[in-house]
Design goal:
The protein is α+β, with helices and mostly antiparallel strands. It has two domains: 106 residues; 97 residues, Alpha-Beta Plaits (2-Layer Sandwich). It contains three helices and twelve strands. The strands form three sheets. It has a five-stranded antiparallel beta sheet with strand order 3-4-10-2-11. Strands 6-7-5-9-8 form a five-stranded antiparallel beta sheet, covered by helices on one side. The protein starts with a strand and ends with a strand. It is found in: Cytoplasm; Nucleus; Secreted.
Length: 216
């Protein structure tokens, strides 16, 4: 997951391609930057990110079972409805279906679970959200979705200090717009003569605050 960081007014974040450049600038502490022909003394700080989450999400789509919802409310016995659902999906022309092993129907929630005998019979319904259902000469639309087993693995919490990114504080406001000031900051910290290096990303805020997201 992405970790949000609050970037306040007159602050900037610079991410360098080389970790050593960022660490060297942090050790130096203060830097004199030319902004709009004015020399601004800015402070370079490391910062600690908030807690992040890392996990693997595994989803297995069943090839034999589909979930049905929005089954119409009809004044017929439940076993008749089960039979009609079974017949409807047995005669399917959607590229799936076939002989049905079991139909589990719940009248109260208007849902059903249909399990086919043949593996892969449910695959034809994966992209079919509204499925025609014929009862007593009328056509209804069922909501069909594949049955999926979902589980998490390798769930971890982590936090730390970004080694390639520095935080600039105390940037003085100028008459230039935010983009121009950001360009001047970038030019300064890209020069090797200023102990800088190639910048991967930069974000400067002159007014208000913004949220910048980090990945692990």
């Amino acid at each position: 997951t992405k970790i949000p960081f609050r970037l306040n007014q007159n602050q900037a974040l610079l991410t360098f391609e080389d970790e050593e450049v960022a660490q060297r600038l942090i050790k130096m502490g203060k830097h004199s930057v030319n902004l709009d022909n004015k020399i601004a003394d800015v402070r370079v700080k490391p910062f600690t990110l908030e807690m992040g989450i890392k996990f693997e999400l595994h989803v297995t789509i069943s090839g034999k079972t589909i979930n049905i919802s929005e089954v119409p409310e009809l004044s017929i016995p439940e076993d008749w409805m089960r039979d009609k659902l079974e017949l409807n999906f047995y005669k399917s022309k959607q590229g799936g279906g076939g002989e049905v092993e079991n139909v589990n129907y719940d009248k109260r929630s208007r849902t059903a679970v249909v399990t086919f005998l043949r593996p892969g019979a449910a695959n034809g319904f994966v992209r079919c959200t509204k499925y025609p259902f014929f009862v007593n000469g009328r056509c209804y639309r069922l909501s069909v979705s594949p049955k999926a087993d979902v589980h998490l693995e390798k769930f971890q919490l982590y936090c730390g200090i970004s080694k390639k990114t520095i935080l600039l504080k105390g940037i003085q406001e100028t008459e230039d717009d935010e983009e121009s000031t950001q360009d001047m900051i970038e030019i300064h910290f890209q020069k090797p003569s200023n102990s800088g290096g190639e910048i991967e990303k930069i974000k400067y805020v002159s007014k208000g605050v913004t949220w910048v997201c980090f990945e692990e």
